[in-house]
Amino acid sequence: MINLEQALAGKRILIVDDLVEARSSLKKMANILGGDKIDAATDGIEAMNLIHRNDYDIVLSDYNLGRTKDGQQVLEEARFTNRLPATSLFIVITGENAMDMVMGALEYDPDGYITKPYTLNMLKERLIRIITVKEKLRPANEAIDAKDYNLAIKLCLQVLKENKRLRLPASRMLGQLLLKQNNFEQALSIYSQLVADRSVSWAKLGQAICIYKLDDPEKALELLNLTLIDHPLYVQCYDWIAKILMYLARAKEAQEALEKAIAISPKAVLRQMELGRIAYQNDDLVVAETAFKNAIRLGRYSCHKSVKNYLQFARSAQVLLKNPGDRTTQNKASEIIRAMDELKQDYPADNDSLFFASILESKTHTNMDNVKEARRCLTEAELIYARLEEPELDYQFQIVEAYIDTEQSVKAQQMIDELKRVSLSDEQRNKLNELDHALNGEALRRHSSQLNDEGVGYFEQGDLAAAIIAFDQSTQYQYATTSAMLNSIQAKIALMEKVKPNKDMLQECRALLIRIGEIDKSDERFPRYARLRKTYDRLGRAIAK
Q1: How confident is the model at residue 324 (pLDDT cuts 50, 70, 90)?
Q2: SS3 412
Q3: How many whole angstroms separate alpha carbon 202 and alpha carbon 205?
Q4: Is residue 516 scored above 80 in pLDDT?
Q5: How many CB atoms sit inside 10 A of residue 352's CB?
Q6: Domain coordinates of the chain in residue numbers?
Q7: pLDDT at residue 356, as a whole number
Q8: Cα–Cα–Cα angle for 77, 80, 84, nearest 5°?
Q9: 436 versus 188: which is more confidently predicted?
Q10: In this model, does residue 224 exceed pLDDT 60?
Q11: Is 16 exposed, middle or buried (0-12, 13-18, 19+ CB in 10 A)?
């Protein structure tokens, strides 16, 4: 065992805790144990600022650091930015009992962890154990920091030969190094030797990865599932199951695997992003929307914060904007707008993202029947588009679609005509044809709406015959709205009640009811639908007599 006082002397130590009492107490303990170069941070952001400015030998970080970055995110970012050398120690301190907290802390594989409450002697004992192992492996870690991986492998093999007590940490390091160098056969041998002696979760995972890389994905899946029987909380197994299933084009099963992983450890931003991506691919937009929303929330103070999460959340959430009058729908629309506003604030120089944010805002307002705001956002998108250097054709397709949605037919047709003169791929040509068809459909929808308005005017004047003619013209289009078809039924029923039931007219009502289908009871149109349906049934019985 090492002499802790000697081991800590001259080492640069960072203590991170948002509670002043806990921070002060830990600093005092570290000083008593031999630490003489100690910095302290009050939250995750300050911690990362210090880590970027200084080279720390030891970081002692509480898990829960308040509203910004937590200890898990500090560890993740320190490694992501290469500010935590292999020779450094990162120790997580946690008093959390919640599953997601514990799993989140352990998933990123800190050098050690200390649970609260702890005494000076407990801290001393834990540090001695952790630092002892680290010092024994220091030469290999120094080689890793120097990117001399062949030397690191050689030194790990030497440790395995000379010190059996370090078999687990040395084998783990060796396996990771061999995987890094794509030496899957030797890595598999190392992992298999360990598994033959004891059930080690990370070694079983390493086996499965090697087997997959050696072109046996089905066997790798089998091993991963067996590993989960013995280690049901080992979420990295689910990540690799999902990866392999995607390789096998089994996207639905991959999604299910990631959903299981997130149920255990929901705080991993990259896992939420991957779930969102796969669910979106599977056209499961409800799951995708939730995953991307979680990725935004968890990534707000993470090194994995991404503009893609904001855009994909907005795209996925559009499907949930079903009824503009519904409060849930209104809340969801507000969430989308807030997300796009946050994107604009955080990425003010990213014109491409600003363009898509404005397009998605326009789409959101369109779905909420707010044409004025939709057009305003589209104007913003047009201005941003004008600033772009060599934008992809997809940008123009997006604008055309927005023109159609906001009833700007002339502009839509002009851009469609421009695109028809450009060399397009087969996929782009098909997309353009769809937009051209949609534009024609929009014109028909407007004509149908105008005829419906005329019918309503005649109906209110009591001219049922003229109303029926107008409604019949309106509903002849496939784009006719449910309201227009209900209007037509109501006018026909009103005339039959005034004169007498007519078999042909009832048949016309029946055809319209079939087109409408069932209307949900939560729909504000349901009472009217139910009333008309009841009257239709009564008139039908009268004719049958």
Answers
A1: confident
A2: helix
A3: 5
A4: yes
A5: 16
A6: 4-134
A7: 97
A8: 80
A9: 188
A10: yes
A11: buried
User: DSSP string covering 245-312, please?
Assistant: HHHTT-HHHHHHHHHHHHHH-TT-HHHHHHHHHHHHHTT-HHHHHHHHHHHHHHHTTSTT--HHHHHH
pLDDT at position 103, please?
A: 56
* Contact (CB, 8 A) for 97 and 104: no
CA 245, chain centre distance (Å): 19
Cross-sheet strand order for the sheet of 112-115: 37-41, 12-16, 58-62, 89-94, 112-115
- Contact of 470 with 454, CB cutoff 8 Å: yes
Element (H, E) at 62: strand 58-62
Alpha helices (H) along 69-162? 71-80, 99-107, 120-136, 138-145, 149-162
Phi-psi region of 119 (alpha: psi -120 to 50; beta: other; left: phi over 0): beta
- Look at the pTM and tell me if it is higher than 0.85: no
Please tell me whether residue 146 adopts helix, strand or coil conformation: coil
Query: Is 3.20.20.30 the CATH number for 4-134?
Result: no
Helix axes 201-213, 235-247, angle to 10 degrees: 10
In order, the DSSP letters of 347-374 are -TT-HHHHHHHHHHHHHHHHHTT-HHHH
State how far the Cα of 533 lies from the Cα of 53, in Å rounded to an integer.
74
> Is there a cis peptide before residue 117, judged by omega within 30 degrees of 0?
yes
CA dist., res. 30 & res. 265, Å (int): 31
Could you tell me the two tokens for 83? 């500010």
Long-range pairs of 228-234 with CB within 8 A, sequence gap ≥ 24: 230/199, 230/201, 230/204, 231/199, 231/201, 231/204, 233/103, 233/264, 234/201, 234/205
240/150 Cα distance (integer angstroms): 27
Token pair belonging to 262: 């997130």
In which residue are the tokens 């997130």 written?
Answer: 262
| Residue from 538, 533, 541 nearest 486 by CA | 533
Q: Which amino acid is at 344?
A: K
Buried b (16+ CB within 10 A) or exposed e, 251-269: beebbbbbbbbbebbbbbb
Residues 90-144 have pLDDT tens digits of 999 987 655 555 555 566 688 988 888 899 999 999 999 999 999 999 999 999 9
Place of tokens 């990425």: 347
Find where tokens 């991307």 sit: 292
pLDDT of residue 437: 81
Strands 89-94, 12-16: parallel, antiparallel or unpaired by DSSP?
unpaired
